[in-house]
Amino acid sequence: MDSESLACSSVEKDLTRVVSKLEQLHENAEADIGDIATQMSELVEVLSRAEQLVTTLNSSTQVSQDDPMGDAVSMQVETEPTAPQRLTERQVESVRNALARCHERVQKLSTEHRDLHGSISKIGKAIDRNFSADFSSTMRVDVLQDEENLMLLNKAIAKHYCRQGMDDVARTLIRECKMSPEHAQDVFDSEREFADIYGIWVKIQKRDLTDALKWAKMYSQQLSDRHSLIEFRLHRMRFMQLVSYGLDSQREAISYARLNFKKFAVRYEHEIANLMASFIYLPSGLENSPYKHFLGQEKWTELSFIFLKDACQLLGISKNSALSVVVNAGCTALPALLNIKQVMQSRQVLGMWNGCDELPIEIDLQPEFRFHSIFACPILRQQTSEDNPPKKLTCGHVISNDALHKLSVGHILKCPYCPVEQNAEEAVRIYF
Amino acid sequence: MAEYRPSTSWPHRMMSFQCRQADLNRLVMNYLVTEGYQEAAKRFMTEASVKPGPHMDTIGDRLRIQDAVRVGQVKYAMDLATRIYPRLFETDNYVFFHMQQLRLIEMIRDQKMEKALKFAQSKAAGFSKVDPSHYHEVERTMGLLAFDRPEYSPYGELMYYSYRQKVAGEMNAAMLRCHEDESKSKEEPMEPRMMFLIKLILWAQAKLDREGFTDYHKLDLGHADFEEEFRRSFQGF
Q: By its UniProt entry, which PROSITE patterns does this protein fall under (chain B) (predicted)?
């Protein structure tokens, strides 16, 4: 965790430096471009004025030609028009200087911009240095080359879509990966129950309790046996929803309370009294009362998660899909695995890694991701596995299968913990 | 010098105590007047030649108001009390609250749900402004509305006659206090002296028990024949 935050802060530091440089360049460029624009405007104005002067002189010449006066005047006019048609040397010099200054500034901006490329590319290098892009050492790619395993993965993904109510997507996936009809049927059958729960969960968040109340009524006895809060919580929320509709629906709210609260009277005596007192605040509005927290969305979101938890618990199904559990556990494990990558490589133990079912280090997952107890054989001091399962002896002690065989002499086994001698074949495999 | 012998001196002192009839009569009259037993007080006044004391003048009014509360005519009782004691409910918020609560309970008893809700929501009822330490009483009262047969609900005790009796007693005490404030007299306590005396007797008996003294005649309030028990206690062995 420390190395991760260190990596993030390191990249962030470089990024901050580059961003501040870009901001500085932006400010300077803005000022320079402003100046250049001003000079160009002035230049255009000067040239425009000169052009106007030339046009005026030409018009004057034409007018003179129509004059019936003598030749002397006409001769005098013919001499003048030639000179004003050309810019003066000073004007030409002024234009040339302005263009030179603009060119110089644009050149400078271009150079400064090019200099930043180096800094920007450093960000990429910092990311490469602090974050690993190569996960191959933590993966077993060969696993997915097995047809059966690939099918299992597709099946897990399809189940995940079913849970979200996206049956169409699941069907498309099943068709494209050519899943067999038996497996396809299993996908829909096993996730049907959760899809129903999920649908109700979504509706609760949208403040629709119809299906949830129906479900709770159906399983009322089981919920009561488990001391679940959810049935009362649903009725409470529906009641407050009716009260929040205002004075016009208070009769309906009273009827709802009389119909549904009776069975909860003893256990929720105080809660019911508190709910009923909400009517007192209706004229001035619940939003100005101690009950305003019932109007917010948080109350509905909280209720939906309580429902999800209690419903999955009662039906004996997992709250999260297998795919999401695996992905979350993997994300938790990845940093720890990357940290030991160097050690693995330097000690030439990559081959060992790929060959066994154990991880090389212990990884601390959150309690919600621990589904089974871990049993370590007290004789061999290693965790049991599919290949080496735990065995319970007739005396009740448990050791691993390999240890059982090592300690046996023919068919006779003496328990390492107690004096009981027994037939080694009578030991039974156990599951935690 | 005589040796102190507590185990024998206490019974002796009890038997030696001279209880005058006039004192007993005053105790009884005080109880009857304070608790509003008008007819009994009048007859006792005649038969025993005992003066009734300062609260006799208000006994009729207090009796009418308490009777109204006991039969559930709470609004009538409140109106009557306000006419006789204009500042009663200004100086005693708790009694005012309980009377309003009782009005609500009577509407619920009469199955008048709309009327009950309207009353509970009104500013005049004052439920939304109740002292937080009493809000749970408002909640329990409103809880009655959640049941078709509220007398069988967890809050059903509010529907019992004993609750009316309790509130009537509170009203009586409040009226006596109000009267006391007006007359500026400090002589008459709010509670009947007899009640105080009985509590004192019970306290003393408990203390004697703790000290290990058992050789005296106890006043047994649980005795079936209360009159005989009382007479025996006050007359000694």
A: CTLH, LISH
Residue B75 has pLDDT above 50, yes or no: yes
Nearest to A272 among B113, B143, B148 (CB): B143
Which residues of chain A does B135 touch, with a Cβ-Cβ cutoff of 8 Å?
277
Provide CB contacts within 8 A for A279, sequence distance 6+.
A243, A250, A253, B117, B120, B121, B142, B145
Domain ranges, ordered by start, for chain B = 91-178
Interchain pair A280, B138: CB under 8 A: yes
Q: Is the pLDDT of residue A362 over 70?
A: no
Higher pLDDT, B224 or A199: A199
pLDDT, residue A368, reads 62
Q: CB neighbours (10 Å) of residue B107?
A: 20
**CB count, 10 Å around CB of A403?**
21
**CB < 8 Å to A276, chain B:** 139, 142-146
Candidate from B24-33, B169-178, B217-226 with smallest mean pLDDT: B217-226
Average of pLDDT values for B86-95? 74
Q: Which residues pair with A399 in a beta bridge?
A: A391
Per-residue exposure over A191-222, b if at least 16 CB sit within 10 Å of its own CB, e if not: beebbebbebbeebeeeebebbbebbeebeee
Pairing of strands A412-414, A398-400: unpaired
What average pLDDT does range B69-83 have in this prediction? Answer: 83
Chain A residues within 8 angstroms (CB to CB) of chain B: 250-251, 254, 257-258, 261-262, 265-266, 269-270, 272-277, 279-284, 289
Using DSSP's 3-state secondary structure scheme, residue A87 falls into coil
**Residues A253 and A242 sit within 8 Å (Cβ to Cβ):** yes
pLDDT over 70 (residue B189): no
CA–CA separation, A171 and A226 (whole Å) = 37
Highest mean pLDDT among B1-5, B95-99, B226-230 belongs to: B95-99
Q: Are strands A421-423 and A398-400 parallel, antiparallel or unpaired?
A: unpaired
> Can you give the pLDDT at residue A86?
56
Could you please report the per-residue DSSP string of A174-239?
HHHTT--HHHHHHHHHHHHHHHHHHHHHHHHHTT--HHHHHHHHHTHHHHHHTT-SHHHHHHHHHH
Cα-Cα-Cα-Cα dihedral of A232, A238, A242, A245, to 10°?
130
Model pLDDT for residues A395-431, shown as the tens digit of each residue? 888 888 888 878 888 878 878 878 888 888 788 877 7
Q: What integer pLDDT is reported at residue A1 of this predicted model?
A: 43
The pLDDT score that the predictor gives to residue B15 is: 67
Token pair of B115, please? 């009327």
The tokens describing A150, both together, are: 């690939």
Q: How far A238 CA sits from the closest chain B CA (Å)?
A: 14
Task: Please judge whether A276 and B143 are an interchain contact, meaning their C-beta atoms are less than 8 angstroms apart.
Answer: yes
The pLDDT of residue A256 is 92
Q: How confident is the model at residue A3 (pLDDT cuts 50, 70, 90)?
A: low
d(CA B127, CA B140): 12
- CA gap A242, A249 in Å, rounded: 6
Q: Which of A254, A262, A283 sits opposite B113 (nearest CB)?
A: A254
Number of cross-chain residue pairs from A and B with Cβ atoms under 8 Å apart: 65
- State which residue of chain A sits closest to B120, comparing Cα positions: A280
